[in-house]
Design goal:
ATP binding; binds magnesium ion; binds ribavirin triphosphate; magnesium; Alpha-Beta Plaits; 4-stranded antiparallel sheet; ATP-binding; Nucleoside_diP_kinase
Length: about 160
């Protein structure tokens, strides 16, 4: 069986410094990835340089939260994943819940942000918002990863 983007879409997920800092929160987020049956394609932990945060969030440059977002994302270790699933991009965003924490707590209390988010900035996770941004973001964190090569590999045997 060959993989295809239709059957198995890729997205970039980040666990932000607020969640990586606390082992129980980190484990809870990781469990959400597993219980929603995402395939973990790659995973790494890193400390982000401020310049890389600025570049990653450049679409938000000039907005009132940009400075504190960039400072926060460089304030401690983060964990990056490439996740695969059918409709991975939308599914991961649903699992995360709404960006703003008070809204998340009301409309999606069981989501990651609804249950674990602290503030609109310290909201636990990030997820790509489109196929184009997923490719860009995957390349930013995993420069050696080739989507094309990954899709051309054979499906691993189920264990
Ligand atoms: P993300 O990109 O992190 O997956 O989240 P998103 O699409 O739901 O939110 P987006 O509008 O792209 O905003 C990116 C990140 O900026 C921070 N933010 N803070 N009012 C605020 O203080 C505010 N608004 C946005 C959040 O950390 C959000 O995840
Ligand atoms: Mg976004």
């Amino acid at each position: 069986i060959l993989r295809s983007p239709q059957a198995l879409q890729l997205t970039l997920a980040l666990i932000k410094p607020d969640a990586v800092a606390h082992p129980l929160i980190l484990e809870a987020v990781h469990q959400q990835i597993l219980s929603n049956k995402f395939l973990i394609v790659r995973m790494r932990e890193l400390l982000w340089r401020k310049e890389d945060c600025q570049k990653f969030y450049r679409e938000h440059e000039g907005r009132f939260f940009y400075q504190r977002l960039v400072e926060f994302m460089a304030s401690g270790p983060i964990r990056a994943y490439i996740l695969a699933h059918k409709d991975a991009i939308q599914l991961w965003r649903t699992v995360m819940g709404p960006t703003r924490v008070f809204r998340a707590r009301h409309v999606a209390p069981d989501s990651i942000r609804g249950s674990l988010g602290l503030t609109d900035t310290r909201n636990t996770t990030h997820g790509s918002d489109s196929v184009v941004s997923a490719s860009r973001e995957i390349a930013a964190f995993f420069p050696d990863f080739s989507e094309q090569r990954w899709y051309e590999e054979e499906e691993p045997q189920l264990r």
